[in-house]
# Entry
Amino acid sequence: MRVKKRPRPGPKADPALAERRREEILDAAARLFAERGYSETDTQVLIDKLGVGKGTLYRYFPSKRELFLATADRVMRRLRAYVDEALTKVTDPFERVGAAVRAFLRYCSDHPEFVELLVQERAQFKDRKKPTYFIHREAHVQRWHDFYRTLIGEGRIRDISAEQITDVVGMLLYGCLFTNYFHAIERRPEDQADAILDILFHGILSRRERRQRKID
# Structure
């Protein structure tokens, strides 16, 4: 009686190698989408640039849509990591707000091609209930709510809704992101951040006007 030989197991998948390959694909795809636009990007061009087989690309990203949305998701993950890194050694709460604003504007200024991907997403994927930007914002906004509630409890900022503060600051930054991109504003991110923070922390009314309006 002949005993059937068991097939030898294939080589084990290397998670680190797979992650590197995925990042290589996303790097090349982000550049191509930013340069040509979603509609005009042919995945075959990407395959040729990478020097891989079509099956390799589709093993990681089954469709062009999924590939594009993955590049937009990575933009937001990197933006968040960049801002978090800027906060690591900042302990004063108001300096933390300033560091976060400056890091956000600096990242967007240094990477206009990433902003381009967020712009394309809003234009091309109107069927999505929420763009990637807001998906990430909602996933990580609670820490800022808690941050402002702490300052309210300490009497360091006005007793208003922490959600309202977070929303206003978020809208300011989101507006800057698109305004700077579409109008090619060349103002230094640090200068723009200083202007935002000055209005945010001090308002626009003089002390006399505040007293007359009984705001203080």
Notes: The mean pLDDT is 91. DSSP finds eleven helices and no strands in the chain.
